[in-house]
Amino acid sequence: MTDEALVDRMTLPRPDVTVADAEEILLAHYSLSGTLAELGSQQDRNYRVDSDRGRYVLKICHAAYEARELEAQNAALHHLKRQQDAPRVPKVIATNDGREIIVLTVRGRGYQVRLLEYLEGQGLTEMRYLAPASVAALGALCARLAQALADFDHPGLDRSLQWDLRRAGPVAVQLLSAITDSAARDRIAKTMVTAVRRIQPLAPSLRLQAVHHDVTGDNVVGHRDAHGHTIPDGVIDFGDIIRGWLVGDLAVTCASLLHQANGDPFHILPAVTAYQAIYPLSDEELKALWPLIVARAVILVASSEQQMSIDPDNDYVRGNLDRERAIFDTVMSVPFELMEAAILKAAGADVAAPPPSAWLPLLPDIDPVTIAYVDLGVRSAHFSAGNWLSADMDWRLLARAASENGTAATRYGEYRLSRAALGNARAQATFALHVDICLAAGSAVAAPFAGRIGWKDQHLTLTDDSTTLHLDGLDPLVENGAVLAAGDPLGSVFGEVSSLGGLRLQLCSIAGLEPPLFAMPREAAAWSVLCPSPSSLLCPGADAPQPETGELLAKRQTYLASAQKNHYAAPPQIERGWREYLFDVEGRAYLDMVNNVTILGHGHPRLAAAISAQWLRLNTNSRFHYAAIAEFSERLAALAPEGLDAVFLVNSGSEANDLAIRLAQAHSGARNMLCLLEAYHGWSAASDAVSTSIADNPLALTTRPDWVHAAVSPNTYRGAFRGPDTAASYLAAVKPTLATIDAGGQGLAGFICESVYGNAGGIPLPEGYLKEIYTEVRARGGLCIADEVQVGYGRLGHYFWGFEQQGVVPDIITIAKGMGNGHPLGAVITRREIAQSLEKEGPFFSSTGGSPVSCVAGMTVLDIMAEEKLQENARTVGDHLKARLAALIDRHAIAGAVHGMGLYLGLEFVRDRTTLEPATEETAAICDRLLDLGIIMQPTGDHQNVLKIKPPLCLSLESADFFADMLEKVLQEGW
């Protein structure tokens, strides 16, 4: 085809074939009738056909396309149908007389018509968010398809096509004429010129083969995996199949992903990694990939602009234009060199900055080994109580070190804690690509290598053939444009005599680029290739040690018993906490919405000081006499209802519940315990025996000892009886269990129950339920145990104890978790006569339960809770958050119900609000997406379909809104 013919084809509108025309074609040539719906296309006219024989796609294209081009498409489909590992593709449907392509005339214009099977599945284009798993799956699909087409050949593959990236430059020139905005046209043209210049020297090394050349979200279909992610497995629309560059095929796929990248070009990297694992590209092909992606972006936006001028009623093109502009803006946001390095690393290639030459000293009068390097990382001992949030904290620490040592410097490659942003959906740029030096003003600075000087806006550069040195804080002795030899003076550190000055230095391999001072963690490896460490100008101490997250996780999995699980498949390495936030080693701040252990919040300075002071003074066991144990026991008894005045101090909730069960059995003389299904009370032998949650123990329902009797769960949302007024029904459901116990003649020791159904997601018990069941238990001589480990101690906001909501007083209260704000501390509070029953079996002793340090920790927690009004905050913020969550139910079908109160809430996800089918996999995927957005969240309940929302009680309104906003974002965009 001549270039003129190609230009003519580029200006064609869609075929003028109406629904009525299409219906006639279907009936006359395929004996088909049904309901037609138009599908989008840039230059073809496509209709989906729903008939009693199945679903099909009627494809109509202009006669200007050569017949062999359509024949090549059909032949490729037949070829792929024969390949065992090829993706799913549609079947070609022949006409009544056996033809696969027919030529027709409609209102005087010639068209070519085909009918294909409609390939069922979920597309990707309309999804606002694609999980890394979906991105990787698209890259893998592209590789599998290209691999399956490697031995396919057909004369129709050699065609002139505007999408052929080998012709990107000339095609762009033709398309640009349709863009009337001169500034936009010039920007697009300049970008294409740069891309073509980078492609040209690589072109001879790029492999040619049959390629689909349009494996995009529009042209693939897939299925949902176990985590709710869409995994593409089928390919449609072979209209762009050509003999073209193999890497160009991947470039088209990657470019299409950028409209869902939220401006992040690194979004494509999982696709590159997955492709390379299946059908490896050469280094030259990998280096050409990003320029080809840029070229594709240019062609996309320019083609749509032109098509809109030709066919202004084309809603398909209009809808795509915004996406294509987003793709173009994203490719323009980063240097070509950065993405080349990132792509090579993602493909497993060995990419590193070139080793420095033998440079002369930058600071000739300072011995590099005397420089003190200041730790500004996440684990630095310099930081506490949020002091890193002060804007100038890094500089103050640097200046203090310099005043003590003479010269001090920051470290290259350090993830700076001060760069972490609270309540931010995106990881911040925390990785330092530069070094700041604090030293005496007037200190001499010399050129470490020969080069040309640049001086602009107090910023000096020294550039040779491969490297640019960037300096700030200099009082220069050189002029702009000067050429220097190695060792020539550059100037001196700016500042008053006898004062400290600051010098900032950075290296970059791209001339003319002013690189960022910090990189986001996922970009750090690529940026460090372009902006290597300046340690060769200083000393190796200038390089911060890098996190060993993967190695440490492997060590954990090697030496820690496998039953001790961790959150997330690829967990962040958390090394610091402050209030309701956690920080990983890369400086990412996560809102902690699940940690009910740290009731005050993380890193409370007053608690740390109190524990430290007591530890320095005394720590021993509770058999010794000291003030703290008496004072703490008195305060706990004062918190309990009147008559509950005997306190046992232990280490954990499991130990507290275990002891409570033992107390009930000792006092009653019986062994049988009544508990509820869906409950969790601990891991010790006795507390585990009454734990029936199959999420915590899949064998829970079949491995209970014979003294444990589990009653129907009073789950007012999805239980046998639903709604708040179901107490009588649930009590009736317990009666058979009580009758079985009575018939055994062994008596009933007690009943253990969370006062709010915490493990099921904070579901309130039916009104009056505990009052009635407590009566039944006590009538049989049993004791009533209120497990307040998760839900008590002010967390509910409206009540200090959960049982207060039911208007009852238990015989035994168990507490732990928040009591010590992370320090191992638990307690059992009961009546004096019950406590004395245990003495018949001997004295009770816990080695560290009630130690001086534990008691001081517990009292300090109570003091801070009162002074900072944390229960009131739980009520105020919790009510606000619950209202925000309840509003999601009106907007998102998956949101079934909001449970709980205060800051013990549960949001339950369901696939169907009538059947209440639990959305288990979706909930796990939602938690993973929330982690990406900076929020720690985990599922709970027997079906693992409830978000367990139990943050520190210091949660602010702003943080609560951030959580609600991000959850809304996930439910709107997908996971």
Please summarize what this structure is.
This protein is of the alpha+beta class and 975 residues long.
Features:
alpha+beta; 38 strands; 975 residues
What would your notes on this structure say?
There is one protein chain. By secondary structure, the chain is of the alpha+beta class. Helix content is 35%, strand content 18%. An 8-stranded mixed beta sheet has the order 11-12-14-22-18-17-16-20. A 7-stranded mixed beta sheet has the order 27-33-32-31-30-28-29, sandwiched between helices. Strands 1, 2, 3, 4, 5 and 6 form a 6-stranded antiparallel beta sheet that branches. Strand 34 and strand 35 (904-909) form a beta hairpin. The chain is flat, with a radius of gyration of 35 Å.
**How would you describe the shape?**
flat
What spatial order of strands do you see in the largest sheet? Answer: 11-12-14-22-18-17-16-20
- Which consecutive residue ranges, at least 5 long each, have pLDDT under 50? none
Distance between the termini: 45 Å
Measured as a percent range, the helix fraction is: 25-40%
Task: Note the beta-strand portion.
Answer: 15-25%
User: Largest sheet, if any?
Assistant: 8 strands, mixed
Rg on CA atoms, Å: 35 Å
Nearest-integer average pLDDT: 94
Treating each run of at least 4 consecutive H or I residues as one helix, how many helices? 25
Tell me the total number of β-strands. 38
Judged by helices, strands and strand pairing, the structural class is: alpha+beta
